[in-house]
Every structure is written in structure tokens, then in C-alpha cells.
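Reagents: none. Just compute today. Glutamate--tRNA ligase.
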Amino acid sequence: MSQPSEKPVVTRIAPSPTGFMHIGTARTALFNWLYARGRGGKFLLRIEDTDRARSTPEATEAILRGMDWLGLDYDGEPVSQFEQGARHAEVANQLLAEGKAYKCFATQDDIEAFREAARATNSSTHYHSPWREVSESEHPDAPYVIRIKAPKEGQTVIKDQVQGDVTIQNSQLDDMILLRSDGTPVYMLAVVVDDHDMGVTHVIRGDDHLNNAARQMMIYEAMGWPLPVYAHIPLIFGPDGKKLSKRHGATGVEEYQHMGYPASGMRNYLARLGWSHGDDEFFTDAQALEWFDLPSIGKSPARFDFKKLENLCGQHIASTENAALLHELQTFLAATGQGGLQDSKISLFASAMPQLKERAKTYGELIDKAHFIMVDRPVSPDEKAAKALDTVSRGILKELTPHLQNASWTRADLEALLNGFAEEKGTKFGQLAAPLRAALAGRAATPSVFDMMLVLGPDETLARIQDAAA
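Predicted 3D structure written out:
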């Protein structure tokens, strides 16, 4: 078996459409995308939909939406594994014709009896079919499966870019079924044929497929096909060191989108989850594409840390250009069924974005900070804010109004005016800020009063203060 010669890199992601797109699948897709795109290669998508009972169009659509949201563009159209069934069967029959596979007529009862006897003597339960060397002339007229002839002696070495050399004794390999008695191909055969026909040079996948590699290599060997480069990456665990599941929190890609995490932050975090480039935590797509390689992937399972995810997402929101962030915010609102921003709000959002995006870890937090923009007059204060609008505070707001009517609407002038007004009243600005927050936003926790006033402009600011004073 030979390794492929130097040629353009081709990677793939091959999810099964049996449910939502798992965050582990997303990370595997990202690693494949980074490796191919960083080397000018191709990244392909194959939908492994041979399990017809569990595969659904809705799950396929969820995969496509997840890839689109994460920004993982792929080359060509998605390939359906099910639709390649005739090609898979063709390969099995070619191996049969070449004597590298055989017809096995053993029934389920035969196989179970063999295994019971093996268990009784504490022997391997890998089935050894008595039909391996039986000539065609002695075959019965009965249903059969096609099995590959596994090597009986020696060993198979998986040269893995992450795990290192992994040696499997060939005595541990069974004569794997290639084609079932109904003529349908098994997963192991389909994967190999598809990878070969799609020109895949690098198979980057979860290490739960590591043992599969030795069995799949039998097919490459029998067909005389070059082996792909293997890289089996560790699974993702939860903070408690157990396989990531619903008990740890969200596991589906779309859940993270709906929770308001930016795709750039998710890419950064997932890339860093099991792979490292020195001590770099925050990095751009361009840096990840330049740096990513297979040997820097760790062998141990990575632990999902929601605080690190939030921290990185906050940094990505803060570093995104304002116009791009506004576009992403619109996409988030549409994806979560909240509709788009009204035209009258878009310009306000654009002017407020430099302040809104600081310290927001999700789009939801950013929108929450923008409540003063989203709300329309008359502003209805929540319970906490209403307490700041007592009779005395409303009187102070009423006195403040004529001062603001003639104010120069710059931050420096507004700060000077409001601090001076507070001093005249024998109080601190903090005492004045509370009723102003309630008037402008209807909440006790808001962005800076001055930021809100500058975004809203003099007319809207005065109108809201006058409403609250009344």
C-alpha cells in the first residue's frame, strides 16, 4: 500500500443526516476546511444517507444550514452516498471476480452458533466463514453476502498524523461483509469507494473511526488504490471529562447560532478546541488558515469550556467592523424569527455600534444593550427603572429640559452641562443618571447616558425626558 504522491489536497466532511448537526461534526468540518483551504485544495461535502430509516431531508437541510452559518464553503454539490449504491456494489463484485472476496452462505444461526462456541472457549468471536475457499461449483442456490478476504497473518499499520503509528494485528481483522444479501453495500465499503472516487487525499475524522481505518485499508489494498493520509482527532468532552452531551448544554450547531454566538467566534473556538498554535487564543480566519496543521492536534480529548467560548466571541464581536456586524445582527434576528430591524432603527444602530459591541459576548447581549434604540415612545419603564422616576426625580428632569434645549450636542458639552446641573442641585451625576436612564431606555442598566443621548439625538432625547417628567 502506498501513500499518495504530492498532489492537490482534497478533504471532505461526511455527516449522516439523522438529526441536528453536532458541534463535534462542525469541528471536524472546520479542521478539514482549514487544512484544504490553507493549502489551496478542495473541501467536499458528502451526505452519508445510506441509513434510509433514519435519514431525513430535514436533517440534511440542518447540515447545509450549519455549514452555511459557520462559513465553511465546499466545492461542488453535496454528494449523496445512497445514490452511489450501484458503484459500491460494482466494486464488491469486482473484488469477488478477482478472488479477493467471496460469497458466504452462512445464516444468522450459523454465525451465532460459531460465536457461542468461541465464547465458551474464550476465543475470538470474529466469524471465520467456512465458505472462504469453497469453489463456485459447490455453492448452493441460496442467499449470500459478499465478504472480503482479510489477511490472516502479519499486521496492519495505520500511519496517523495525529495518533502516530497504530499497529493492528491482522488476526484481529475479520472477513468483513461488503455487500449484504439484499445487494446493498455496507458503510465500510461505501466510505472507501466514495473517498477514492471523490479524490480524497486526507481523511480527517474523529478517533472513534480509528479501528475502522484498518478494515477500510483492506479494501484500498485489494483494489490497488493509494491510501489517503489519515488524521484521527480526539472527541470533544464536557467540562466533567465525559463525552459532550445534552446534559452539558447545547450540542447542536444551530443552537449556538440561535444563542447569538458569532460564527467567527465559533470558528476560532472550535479551531482552538484540540489544536493549538503556541499560546494564541484569539486569532482571525486568515491566521488559522496559515497556521493550521495536523501534527499540532492533541491526542487527548478536548474539553468544551463555555466561558472560553463566550470570551472569544466577545472579542470577535468587538473586533468586527461596524457595517459587517450590523449585517450579521440582521441575519441573527431573521434566523431566530425576530424579524429585521426597521429602517428607522438601522441608522441608530450603526451610530451606536462602537459602544454597543464593547463587552457584548453574544448578539443577544448586544441587542439587549440596544434596548434604548429598539423601544418606541412612550417609553414604559420596567419595575426597577420606575423607582428612579419618583416625584423629585421627575421634577429634576423637568428643570433639566430647558438647559438641554439650547445645548450643543457633543459629548464634551453634554458632560459639562449635566455635571454642572448636578452640582447646582447639590448632588452627584450618578444621582441624575438613574432617572435619565429610566427616561431614555426604561431600564436601570443601560449604556452610558451620554452615548444614548448622542445616538438618539436632541429631539428624541428631549421628547423622552419630557414624557418621563410628565
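Residues 356 and 367 are 8 Å apart (CA to CA).
Action item: order primers for follow-up constructs.
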